[in-house]
Amino acid sequence: MDGKHIVIVGAGPAGLAASSVLPRLGYRVTMIDRSNTLGGHLSKWYQLFPDRAAATVLLEQLTDEVPDSVSTMLGREVTGGSVSSGAVELTLDHGEHLSANGLIMATGFDLFDARRKEEYGYGIYDNVFTQAEIEEMFRQGQIETRHHRKPRSIAFLHCVGSRDLKAGVAYCSKVCCVTGVKQAIELRELLPDAAIYNFYMDLRMFGRGFEELYQQAQERYNIRFVRGRISEAAESSDGSVIIKAEDTLTSRPLKLTVDMLVLLTGMQPAAGSLELAAKLGLVLGDDSFLKPYGLTQQTFKTSYPHVVLAGSCTGPTTLTEAILSGRSAAMALHESLFKLTN
Ligand SMILES: Cc1cc2nc3c(=O)[nH]c(=O)nc-3n(C[C@H](O)[C@H](O)[C@H](O)COP(=O)(O)OP(=O)(O)OC[C@H]3O[C@@H](n4cnc5c(N)ncnc54)[C@H](O)[C@@H]3O)c2cc1C
Ligand code: SF4
To answer: Which residues pair with 88 in a beta bridge?
Structure first.
């Protein structure tokens, strides 16, 4: 499209996918990310569900597909701007300004801050972790408690900061159930004798291969699934974590001591994205994620023809969904700009 300039905010899987499409259609593309690395959250994961593919391989494929002509600005945050008919003006934290003909918002998500659920003791007790910290341990090839001991028992707690009206989050974060199952299996392989529990409200194994992974977790990997929510956690004198829960299938209270408690924290809009959306005149849903024009079709479109949304800035997504939506958003933007100029 005769050198029209598109800015993509976010170089996660969705932003990378969009940036692989647009230069091939003749656009000049600038991709901006506030982090110093490409790949967004994908760069923090180890093995992916459901098939345990290496995250590094997918990241390499996505970055290899980005043409050299894309100008990538890392370590720069988009903090403001304005959208007017046919034009986009953006302000960056370093005081720089960018003008463009089109914008793709691919700002992704942040994890719920587990400290907000004080009753689980994250940030207070040594051996309460988040699933993101467990991914980092897998990446380092070392699973140990904060006292450098090999854990003999581990419990996962589902729905931390999701489906929790007290925390102001009504929605399900979609990927944490399968992440909990996948991580439990990975732990079993490293710790054949450990007792591994998953405490859940109900299991949402919606994707291809997810339910099968859950079956394997029970039958082949001896992971114990307990339907019930942990009401509180406490720390014992040796640093292990005492958890109180109710098994809602048997209606019996349960008290258990584990070496590690892992909180499966939910997805929420990326920090700063609400303020940025307000400045750009973009609409938010009740869940605070960016709201597209339609939730069935038109899932990338905004009320501006030259601004589109991609990936988990519109709500929890899998990688597959983020990548597909990045590509689709790029095509939707192309179609809009083509109509505007013809
Ligand atoms: C623990 C965990 C494990 C997961 N494992 C899997 C898995 O195995 N398989 C799977 O399919 N999915 C998995 N997911 C989901 C997957 O991580 C997401 O679907 C994917 O990261 C979404 O990509 P994205 O590009 O939309 O957002 P992100 O990955 O969040 O990338 C967004 C990027 O935008 C940047 N950004 C945000 N705001 C600004 C700004 N104002 N200026 C500049 N840059 C900005 C951020 O720095 C970030 O790099 C997992 C999720 C979690 C929480
Ligand atoms: S995916 Fe599972 S753990 Fe995550 S919010 Fe939904 S039900 Fe809870």
So the answer is: 83, 100
Helices (H), 141-300: 176-190, 210-219, 273-280
Name every protein residue with a CB atom under 6 angstroms from any ligand 2 atom. 158-159, 162-163, 172-174, 176-177, 204, 264, 266
CA 177 to ligand 2 center in whole angstroms: 5
Of 150, 111, 154, 103, whose CA–CA distance to 304 is shortest? Answer: 103
Structure tokens at 195: 């007792």
Q: Which of 339, 293, 306, 281 is nearest to 85 (CA)?
A: 306
Report the predicted TM-score, pTM, of the whole model to 2 decimal places.
0.97
CA atoms within 13 A on the CB side of 286: 5
Contact 195, 151 (CB under 8 A): no
Cα–Cα distance, 120 to 135 (Å, whole number): 20
295 Cβ neighbours under 8 A, 6+ residues apart: none
What is the spatial distance between Cα 150 and Cα 164, in angstroms, rounded to a whole number?
A: 32
**Ligand 1 pocket: which of 30, 34, 41, 206 to mutate (most atoms <8 Å of CB)?**
41
| CATH architecture, domain defined by 5-108+270-341 | 3-Layer(bba) Sandwich (3.50)
**Cα 84 to Cα 101: distance, rounded to the nearest angstrom:** 10
Report which bound ligand comes closest to the CA of 200. Answer: 2
Please give the pLDDT value at position 340: 81
**Nearest ligand by distance to the CA of 268:** 1
pLDDT in tens, 235-270: 999 999 999 999 898 899 999 999 999 999 999 999
What residues does CATH 3.50.50.60 cover in the chain? 5-108+270-341, 114-266
Which tokens hold the place of 227?
């339907």
Distance CA 256, CA 5 (A): 58
